[in-house]
Amino acid sequence: MRRGVGSAFLLLLLAFSGFAQGVEAFRQPALASEASYTMVILPDLQNYVKFERNQPLLDVMMNWVVARKDSLHIGMVLCTGDLVEHDDIINPDGRKMDQTGRQQWEYVSGAFQKLDGVLPYVTATGNHDYNIFSYTHKPKTTHFPDYFYAEKNRENKKLLREVFTNVYGEHSLENAAYEWVAPTGKKFLFLSLEFAPRDTVLSWAGEVVAKDAYKSHTVVLLTHAYLNYKNQHIESMSYDLEDANPGQAVWEKLVKGSKNIELVISGHIGGKDNARKHVAYRTDKNAAGKTVHQMTFNAQAMGGGHYGNGGDGWLRILEFLPDGKTVAVKTFSPFFALSPSTQHLAWRNADYDAFTFQFD
């Protein structure tokens, strides 16, 4: 082949491959610095769990987290709650869901088992994890403690420091605090609270974060329903519950008055195939004048809505940079990353999905 013809042929191949058009080649998530560490946020999982057909997508996500543990220096996995669609259903209709409540709990517990003994994780409980959708029981009850308990993951057990009682008066991981020290020496306290926490829970949480043992820690609060997609605190909820605090009340009764809660992570919200309606972010000052970063991340209605594929495999990666203050937020789908034909969809790069923030 003559040189001129060969060069033209090569350019044609490049054009078809996308490189000549300036399309960036696919890349797996990587650290900006080898001195960084990361945390992974899993959104509401209910729509993966409620259909047997969707469950393999959650397996893909969990397998990806385990496989990237070392290369991304993953130190913690956080889940925003709604682990199941229905806490106690025994006769699913096959359209809204095809798994019973017990099947849903058994599956999601098994999905997290991929992390057991490998990585610590903290999960909130969401409204779907309670029985409020089938009855008007007061107070709200859940099978969460039967499937997520202190001994389930030895990595969690090492970090568990504080536990409070659930509505049965029993100590449960529905309300718990975990201490974790980053490779840089930065101390974190992860505080997970039940859906729409009761006043007694908020009082307990306030006492925990004020303890001398945690005054120098950066407290990360994990709770399910906190911000709406307009970046506002949720002021009310349409559930027949007594002694239940939505996001605005959680802010007023706990976060605002604290001196070391610096990051709040939540889920709950969404709109069919609308990424923007699944996320929120705002900052406010706490009692110590520190900036509180408040972030909602969800994906449950991506991939076809509530009866679609469960959420297109989206998760969020928080990279904590070596300066000890800066956090880079990235939104990625291990599901789309599986195939060369969908890898161009594996990153979300809008300003609400890819940004940085700084602790004071």
UniProtKB/TrEMBL annotation:
GO molecular function: hydrolase activity
Annotated keywords: Signal
Signal sequence region: 1-22
Short name of one Pfam family: Metallophos
Residue ranges annotated for the Calcineurin-like phosphoesterase domain, each copy included: 72-269
InterPro entries: Calcineurin-like_PHP, Metallo-depent_PP-like, STPP_CPPED1
SUPFAM superfamilies: Metallo-dependent phosphatases (SSF56300)
Gene3D superfamilies membership: 3.60.21.10
Official protein name in the record: Serine/threonine protein phosphatase
Organism of origin: Pontibacter mangrovi
